[in-house]
Design a protein that fits this description.
Radius of gyration: 17 Å
CATH architecture of one domain: Roll
Number of helices: 0
Strand order of the largest sheet: 6-3-2-1-7-8
Strand content: over 45%
CATH class of one domain: Mainly Beta
Helix content: under 10%
Distance between the termini: 12 Å
Order of helices and strands: EEEEEEEEEE
């Protein structure tokens, strides 16, 4: 079980977009994620008529390392760490480390 999943609300804790919040769109490999509205760059793309690409300068979100983000705890309104616990039904669940509340996914 991963500590961060697709759809989690996260906050950037280091880098050029420090302090921005967004949700995880994609997990790339084992250690990189794409966060909505964060780490966007301008990419110069060549036209490709075969696939229907017009080309030009496009805005695109690039992957960032998973160590630069932290899950956002809405109860405390600040970044938090993720831990694991076994619930009453013997299921492994993710919890916030600061207040031990279960993370709904």
């Amino acid at each position: 079980m991963r500590k961060l999943k697709k759809g989690d609300d996260v906050i950037v804790i280091s880098g050029k977009d420090k302090g921005k919040r967004g949700s995880i769109v994609t997990i790339v490999g084992t250690d990189r994620v794409i966060v909505q509205g964060v780490n966007s760059v301008k990419k110069h793309q060549k036209p490709n008529p075969a696939s229907g690409n017009m080309g030009g300068i496009i805005d695109r979100e690039m992957p960032m390392h998973i160590s630069n983000i932290a899950i956002y705890n809405f109860a405390l309104k600040k970044p938090d760490r993720v831990g694991f616990k076994i619930d009453d039904n013997n299921n492994k669940v993710r919890v916030y480390r600061s207040n031990s509340e279960v993370i709904e996914s």
